[in-house]
Every structure is written in structure tokens, then in C-alpha cells.
Automatic annotation (TrEMBL):
Domain of life: Bacteria
Residue spans crossing the bilayer: none
One Pfam family from the record: Sigma70_r4
GO term, biological process aspect, one: DNA-templated transcription initiation
InterPro entries: RNA_pol_sigma-70_dom (IPR014284), RNA_pol_sigma70 (IPR000943), RNA_pol_sigma70_r2 (IPR007627), RNA_pol_sigma70_r3 (IPR007624), RNA_pol_sigma70_r4 (IPR007630), RNA_pol_sigma_FliA_WhiG (IPR012845), RNA_pol_sigma_r2 (IPR013325), RNA_pol_sigma_r3/r4-like (IPR013324)
Official protein name in the record: FliA/WhiG family RNA polymerase sigma factor
Lineage of source species: Bacteria, Pseudomonadati, Thermodesulfobacteriota, Thermodesulfobacteria, Thermodesulfobacteriales
Claim: Transferase is one of the keywords in the record: no
This protein's UniProt keywords: DNA-binding, Sigma factor, Transcription, Transcription regulation
A single MF term (Gene Ontology): sigma factor activity
Length: 248
């Protein structure tokens, strides 16, 4: 494995661009007032911790291991800043319920105009609301990480280890969540599904997705916010209270 001969210092230097990339992706979903440099600083600390704890004898890639640590450090930084006001969380929860209710009533995903009308808003005001809740997460990664830490004898390296071992979601008892999420994504409207696929699976930024789809970066962010609200509602409906801790 190529990492066997690398020192922690070499791993850190080689993967510094990864920190900036992950910070830019996360910052694209946050209010403009937040300084992405704070995320970069936190991410570098996460990278240093990853290099210090990485065991090259395990059958995992350092990049995979480091991404988990870097994202965790950035989320910790955001949590300390307490950047999401309660009012925004309440608006996101209400919007999620409205989208879910409309889909149940219509028998299909609601159009933007229908959601705006249900909310009693103009289309422009509805889009501004989507901008306001754009820092929304699909799954509470802190709760997921805590579940990992609570598993006796299960370390991050075990979770990310070689493909011939038990499925990591199975280890965490989250197989049902993974299957429900895959099904929910498949049921999204084509435009929302494409944004989710390009952002989370292909690793494109909002700006890059906008170029692919012919929309502005702001419009892609709005589509992304609606898709996450849509998915959260579907997961709550399918999984019930047993997974509430991961959808808060």
C-alpha cells in the first residue's frame, strides 16, 4: 500500500487541498456571514488528527479515513459557533411537513408553485425561504458519530475497513436507514435526484452542478435544500420514531 512509507507530515502536506475542498463544499450550504477560513482551520486540525491516528496496516485508504475526521472537525466548529438559529430550524421543520403533506395529498412530489401556495408565499419568497434553510443536513452526523463511539470495540478504522468484511451500516445497526435513503432518493423528482447525485456521489460543487444543469449556483442550492427536506420527510415517514435521533 502506498501509504506504508509515508510519514504523518507527508500525509498532511499531500492532503491539505482536500481540507480546502471540503470546506468550500460545506461553506456553500451555509450563510454568507460565516467565514470559510474557520472551517479550513478546523479541518486542518482534523487532518492532523487523522494522520496521527492512521494505521497503514489496515486495508483502508488514508483519504477515506481523513475525510471522516476532517468533516467531523468542521462540524464541531460549526456546532461551537451555534450558527443555526432556532427560528431557522423551526422554519425548516415546518417546510418539511408541508412538502410531505402535499406529496401525500397529491400522490406525487409537489411543484415549487404548489409549495409556495400552500405556505401562502409568493414564489420569490418561497425561494428566499429555501435560501434561509440551506444549511440543513439530511442526517445528524454527530448522532451517527456518537453511535459509532458507543459501539464497544468498534473504531473508525473498523467501520471503514476492507470490503470483504461486514457492511458498515450493518455494524452500526443502520442498514434499514441506508435502504430507506436509497429508496427515497430514487423517488425524488428528476431534477432533485440529479442534484443529490452530482453533489454527494460525484463530488461536484454547487457551482459545477449549475454549469452542468444550466442553472445559477443559487438555484442549485435551492433545489438541494428542497431535496433534503423532501428526503427527511420520506425517512421520517418510513422509519418512524426509531430513527428520530438521526433526523433532528
Amino acid at each position: 500500500m502506498k501509504y506504508l512509507s509515508r510519514s504523518p507530515e507527508e500525509l498532511i502536506f499531500e492532503h491539505l487541498p482536500l481540507v480546502k475542498y471540503l470546506a468550500q463544499r460545506l461553506a456553500g450550504r451555509l450563510p454568507p456571514a460565516l467565514d470559510s477560513e474557520d472551517l479550513v482551520s478546523a479541518g486542518i486540525l482534523g487532518l492532523i488528527e487523522a494522520a496521527r491516528r492512521f494505521d497503514p496496516s489496515r486495508k483502508i485508504q488514508f483519504k477515506t479515513f481523513a475525510e471522516f475526521r476532517i468533516r467531523g472537525a468542521m462540524l464541531d466548529e460549526l456546532r461551537q459557533l451555534d450558527w443555526t438559529p432556532r427560528s431557522v430550524k423551526e422554519k425548516a421543520a415546518h417546510l418539511e411537513k408541508v412538502i410531505t403533506r402535499l406529496e401525500q395529498r397529491l400522490g406525487r412530489p409537489p411543484e415549487d408553485e404548489e409549495v409556495a401556495r400552500e405556505l401562502g408565499l409568493s414564489l420569490d419568497d418561497y425561494y428566499r425561504l429555501l435560501d434561509e434553510v440551506r444549511g440543513l443536513s439530511l442526517v445528524d452526523l454527530e448522532a451517527l458519530r456518537k453511535k459509532l463511539e458507543d459501539q464497544e470495540g468498534l473504531d473508525l478504522e473498523d467501520l471503514l475497513a476492507a470490503e470483504d468484511q461486514e457492511d458498515p451500516f450493518e455494524k452500526l445497526g443502520l442498514k434499514e436507514l441506508a435502504e430507506a435513503l436509497a429508496q427515497a432518493i430514487s423517488e425524488l423528482p428528476e431534477r432533485e435526484r440529479l442534484v443529490i447525485t452530482l453533489y454527494y456521489y460525484e463530488g461536484l460543487t454547487m457551482k459545477e452542478i449549475g454549469r452542468v444543469m444550466g442553472y445559477t449556483e443559487s438555484r442549485i442550492s435551492q433545489i438541494h435544500s428542497k431535496a433534503l427536506l423532501h428526503l427527511r420527510g420520506k425517512l421520517r415517514e418510513r422509519l418512524g420514531e426509531s430513527y428520530r435521533e438521526f433526523l433532528s
